[in-house]
Write a structure and sequence with these properties.
Blueprint (H helix, E strand, L loop, with lengths): L3 E10 L3 E10 L2 E6 L9 E4 L4 E4 L1 E6 L12 H10 L2 E6 L10 H11 L5 E6 L13 H7 L3 E3 L10 H11 L3 E3 L4 H4 L7 H5 L8 H17 L2 E3 L5 H12 L4 E5 L1 H5 L21 H12 L5 E2 L8 H4 L16 H10 L6 H15 L16 E11 L17 E11 L2 E5 L2
Parallel strand pairs: 1-4, 1-5, 6-7, 7-8, 8-9, 9-10, 10-11, 11-12, 12-13
Antiparallel strand pairs: 1-2, 2-3, 5-14, 14-15, 15-16
Helix pairs in contact: 2-3, 4-7, 7-8, 8-10
């Protein structure tokens, strides 16, 4: 494999912070990091002056819709969208049709994922058939190649949760939970005054925070648990207290929860329909505070593509979810770094080091020599509006037309360039 030399970059390493460095990549690894590295004959040189170099961004919450809904997304199209968005690794959720609940399916789709130019990992259903009735065969699913367990899109039942936490921990893989009381959610689709004026049934906030409290208490006694897509001030406060007590719980949030609020729902636009729903401004500020102080560990896109015909059904009848792989980086740069909420080093932890730690990817999430040569190179000066057309097969983004800065300039996976901005 030819070597690649990244010159004149501002290198942001989660462990050591920011420094002007050159990086030499070869054999799929980072070979050297030094203030100046002389280019040898035959080595490709990329001048990264004015750019920010991060360990490859890892999105720990992605839906590829394969099998079952390939008109909305496939593993291949999700991987291309990820590369375009500066994301070098993705963890796919198991709520496909059929669900990723059998070892044979995991093996089949891992073979398909191997053709992608980025790293694609599969999570498996935590419960048998993702039906929430009895535990899945976690050991067999791990042997087949599963990287995590979750019933995402559904909440693991209380009676099964402690046992599943212990089984996952014994296998050395994370258990992720979609914390939501579906009995409280009912037929709700939103959580805002504007939505109610539009005649849309509501989702009470307690549907999330009561489930979050239940999950945190289970983790306190049973072992490590990761909470998905937190959106509420009450959830962030509970997580902050749990961490102060030393309980083994981590959590993620998504860009739409720190960049948008319920006030953005002004019409029957299903591209603003997601779960959890958009919250009041006070919750958005609490999520920002949780990102700044270390309470929230990870930012993930919860990339949830849906074909246009499905979203055209209107807010009440359309499926939940928005896409996010291609806007993850510029939203984080614009809304978090450039507004002074967090540092670039903190962003490297949220998008690289912490998701690598969650998934046990020991050679990722770092720019140290010997680490995998997965890089996300950001141009902080590049400003553009979110386009209406995406590399993803779907376009259900609430950010279309919004001006953002900090778009990817180069995406490198295993030392190979998989995306280069025009």
């Amino acid at each position: 494999m030819p070597e690649l030399l990244i010159k004149n970059a501002l290198v942001i390493d989660p462990a050591s912070g920011e420094a002007r460095r050159d990086l030499l990549l070869g054999g799929g690894r980072i070979l050297r990091a030094a203030p100046r590295i002389k280019a040898r004959p035959g080595v490709e040189v990329y001048d990264a002056a004015g750019l920010w170099v991060f360990p490859g961004f890892i999105d720990a919450h992605v839906h590829a819709r394969e099998p079952g809904a390939q008109d909305s997304e496939t593993i291949a199209s999700a991987a291309r969208a990820a590369a375009t968005g500066g994301v070098t690794s993705i963890l796919l959720m198991p709520n496909t049709s059929p669900p990723m609940a059998a070892p044979g399916l995991i093996r089949k789709y891992l073979r398909r994922a191997a053709a992608a130019r980025i790293n694609v990992y599969l999570s498996a259903a935590a419960t048998s058939g993702r039906a929430g009735l009895r535990p899945g065969d976690l050991a067999a699913l791990k042997k087949a190649g599963a990287a995590a367990f979750t019933d995402d899109g559904a909440c693991v039942p209380s009676g099964l949760l402690p046992g599943l936490i212990k089984r996952a921990a014994a296998l050395g893989l994370p258990l992720l939970d979609h914390a939501e009381d579906f009995e409280l959610t009912g037929a709700g689709v939103a959580d805002s005054a504007a939505a109610r004026l539009l005649g849309l049934p509501g989702i009470p906030a307690r549907a999330e925070w009561l489930a979050v409290l239940r999950d945190i208490l289970a983790a306190a006694s049973a072992g490590p648990l990761h909470l998905q897509h937190l959106s509420l001030a009450a959830s962030v406060s509970a997580l902050r207290l749990a961490k102060k007590l030393g309980w083994p719980v981590t959590a993620e949030t998504c860009p739409h929860y720190f960049a948008l609020s319920e006030a953005d729902i002004k019409s029957d636009d299903a591209d603003l329909k997601m779960k959890p729903p958009l919250r009041p401004a006070a919750d958005r500020l609490a999520v920002l505070a949780g990102l700044a102080d270390g309470t929230i560990d990870i930012v993930a896109s919860d990339h949830a593509p849906h074909a246009r015909r499905l979203k055209a059904r209107g807010f009440k009848n359309a499926p939940f979810g928005v896409i996010g792989l291609e806007t993850l980086a510029p939203l984080c740069v614009t809304e978090l770094v450039l507004k002074g909420i967090i540092s670039k080093t903190r962003l490297a932890r949220l998008l690289s080091a912490n998701p690598a730690r969650l998934l046990g990817l020991k050679n990722k999430g770092s720019l140290r020599p010997g680490a995998d040569a997965d890089l996300t190179i950001i141009d902080p000066a590049r400003e553009q509006r979110v386009p209406a057309a995406f590399v993803s097969k779907s376009s259900n983004s609430p950010f279309i037309g919004i001006k953002l800065r900090g778009w990817p300039a180069l995406t490198v996976v295993g030392g190979k360039v998989v995306y280069r901005a025009a």
